[in-house]
Amino acid sequence: MNINNKHDIYYPIFITGVPRSGTTLLSQLINVSKEIHIGTETHFFQITKPLSKNNTIHEVKDFYLNPKKNRFLRYFDLNETQLKEIKKECQEAQTINELLSTICSFESKRVNISRWGEKTPAHDIAYEKIFKHFPNAKIINITRDPRAVFQSNLKIKWVSKNPLKLTNRFKKNQKVIKRNINNTQFISIRYEDLITKPQDILINLFSQIDLKYSEKVIHEFNNPSNRNFNNSLESWKDNSYQGIDSKKVEEWNKEELKKINSFIAWILKDELLNQGYKYINENSLFCNIILFTKYSAKNLISTILKIQSINLARLLNIKI
Question: Taking phi first (over 0 means left), then psi (-120 to 50 degrees means alpha), and beta for anything else, what does residue 243 get?
Fold first, then answer.
């Protein structure tokens, strides 16, 4: 889709879901179309959430485009000249719609594509804000078996290994799906379906978001030209280029993780069954209660330490 094409469809696409659920893979598949470009995760609504309704658009711009205040800005991998350019382009923005559009278009225009998309997993919780500021937008939410997500989390050093944090996050995502069950602008797919029958899922999905599907989508998604992250800054996303492998569906079902997997299933029984996932709980009730108590205590301690570190940072007037 060239910028000069008068028949371009401009409504944006937002890709959301629990982190490690396949959002990066999905965005690369969509980028192959060259009709839309889904760039770096903006975390826009997540970062600007602390701002009050009384903040002006100029204050939002100053906050978001300040590397000292927005820790995610570094993932755009902008040099000083590029940072000045994007700030300059955002000067004319008078609304949230115009601001986020300008930020996302900054990358899409560099590859000569006019229609932009955005991929931030945490934006599922911000779906109301998305539809408020982008009434014509479509959200694609991808769900993955939480036991597979947990196994994926184990491979990343900085991600919490507390299964209760994951189950709480998964429940929030499933509530969002339930609230949008009759919303035609909210599209829900499963990671497992995407990798076991990719062509069927993608043909249907591309039709829903007004893109032309071709077989090269499956074969060329791991081409560097479709990448929307810097692997030196976000190396944990590299696995999205390993190819579409249906064997990954059952990778989570390992003997050494049986106790944790059963615990996750116990917590998320209704959510698993609603999504059509296997329910396997081989733990005794006593075992699950013990695990719940253990991880609840860890959650509490983690929260207390986080609050204390924030208070200390404020006292010392430093950013953490």
Answer: left
Identify which of 7, 41, 294 has the alpha carbon closest to the alpha carbon of residue 164: 294
Q: Which two tokens stand for residue 100?
A: 């986020």
Q: Which two tokens stand for residue 159?
A: 């991600």
Residue in this structure with the two tokens 């990066």, named with its chain if needed: 24
Residues 6+ apart with CB under 8 A from 116: 12, 36, 37, 38, 39, 101, 104, 105, 107, 108
Q: What is the per-residue pLDDT across 116-160, written as a single tens digit (0 to 9) for each?
A: 999 999 999 999 999 999 999 999 999 999 999 999 999 998 888
For residue 188, give the amino acid letter: S
Q: Does the structure show a pLDDT above 60 at 88?
A: yes
Q: Is the dihedral of CA 37, 43, 168, 50 positive or negative?
A: negative
Rounded-to-integer distance, Cα 68 and Cα 72, Å = 10
Token pair 């500021």 in the structure block, residue: 133
Instruction: Say what the pLDDT of residue 87 is.
Output: 95
Half-sphere exposure at residue 110, Cβ-oriented, CA atoms within 13 angstroms:
15
- For the chain, percent helix, then strand, then coil, each to nearest 5? 55, 5, 40
In the chain, the amino acid numbered 248 is K
Return the structure tokens found at 76. Answer: 């755009």
**Cβ atoms of residues 212 and 35 within 8 Å:** yes
What Rg do the C-alpha atoms of the chain give, in angstroms? 20
Query: Which amino acid, 40?
Result: T
Residue 159: how many CA atoms within 13 Å on its side-chain side? Answer: 18
* Alpha-carbon dihedral angle through residues 87, 89, 94, 99, given to the nearest 10 degrees: -70
Q: How far apart are CA 86 and CA 76, in angstroms?
A: 11
